[in-house]
Amino acid sequence: MHKTFIALLVGIVAVATFSNWQVQTTALTTPPNVVLIFMDDMGYGDLGCYGASNYQTPHIDQVAAEGMRFTNFLAAQPVCSASRAGLLTGCYPNRIGIYGALFPRVKMGINASETTMAELLKTKGYATAIFGKWHLGDHPSFLPLQHGFDEYVGLPYSNDMWPVVTHINSEEQKRRRAAFPFLPLIQGNDTLRSIQTLEDQAQLTGIYTQRAVDFIAKNKKKPFFLYVPHSMPHVPIAASAAFRGKSKQGLYGDVMQEIDWSVGEIMKALKKNGLDKNTLVIFTSDNGPWFNYGNHAGSAGGLREGKGSTYEGGNRVPCLVRWPGQIPAGTVCTQLASTIDLFPTIAQICQATLPTQKIDGVDITPILKGNLQASPRKYFYYYHRRNNLEAVRRDNWKLVLPHEGRSYEGQTPGRDGMGGLAPENHPYPLALFDLNRDPGERYDVQAIYPDIVAELQQVAETARQDLGDDITNRTGKNVRLAGILK
Length: 486
Hints:
It contains twelve helices and 22 strands. The chain is an alpha/beta fold. The protein folds into two domains: 30-370, Alkaline Phosphatase, subunit A; 380-478, Arylsulfatase, C-terminal domain (2-Layer Sandwich). The strands form six sheets. A ten-stranded mixed beta sheet has the order 8-7-6-5-9-1-10-11-2-12. Strands 14-15-16-19 form a four-stranded antiparallel beta sheet, covered by helices on one side. Strands 3-13 form a two-stranded parallel sheet. Strand 20 (468-469) and strand 21 (474-475) form a beta hairpin. The chain is globular and about 60 Å long.
């Protein structure tokens, strides 16, 4: 009888606790602020809470401890511009005509007809700012102020797109980059200053951080969307004097510890201004590590390949989401989700109306509210290069489709900022992987599960009909164009 009473009491307390939490999450009346921190080339194994070694990321780990950590979170594509396009629009980037990494002076960028996350939130009265790397077109018509942001300070593209070529050993690439201008640090639509040396680059993390902190203080009386897409740890990496030589993993560890400091400063600013309880903080990355840069690149945490590959090391990235009282602290989500899901999820949380044009993201709010069995995303399409469908996924099952792609395996990486080889034409055959048992994608099990292969082949066919596929010479029915200068 005594044991039965105790069990009943525990059950009542558990139900009451869950009910109280449910009331708290549904009783929200003030729209939350949104802080989105987006890393560049940071891999799955590059944070302490994901297993990083020889340097510490305590502030970022604290975000994980106070929120939710995702273990099956995928970038839209494993490359810069495409990944950012997917994040900010909720679309597979090839749906909106953005591919690869856009270079300086290119005559294309994000189309004005697309709705960005900033434009979405401005409809709800949010102040909006971006401090960091944009990379969706560097012509003024493509810059952030023309796409929903009130403030912008940062680089218009990647920090290696400049005439300083110490990190490149290919003569062809050296000639190409010699024609580039020095990096423009843009404020609004105008160049604030020119970034000409690695010492200049070493100041970028601090500049972005200070701007973010100032923006928080200035907008504490109204809802805001703060987007901080760091230029680091994309090569060439650089850390300021305060962090240089401070880690046991050389310059890469120093850079990561400075990024961790930056996150700490942003979290401190939220608390100082009384905003940390009602701010949704998201921390993630655009793709995996650029392995051929060796000790200047990060870790994929044991996943296969890295940046520029649709194997898991290229697409799977860390993701941490914190919102006290709304997202249960210390939780780990193993369900499939993607950066393209953040757009509709933030729309739901902030009660904004989604655009009428088709998007690909799904609302993962049920997961964030603590339902770790919810699975709003069933499938994911791994597109890369211009419009190559290279793999499809359902839950833990991933079918790699025949294609040629980048491979770092068997290649000697570079060192101290110089890149090693990474062939782009490595042949990959059809293969099926069970990512629950084989996250490193080493054991092809298609012969054992022909029914799964058939199912995922049909998923691939659905993707081709919708978005097209250059590998099979298919044209999609529902694709849109990027913005093109006339």
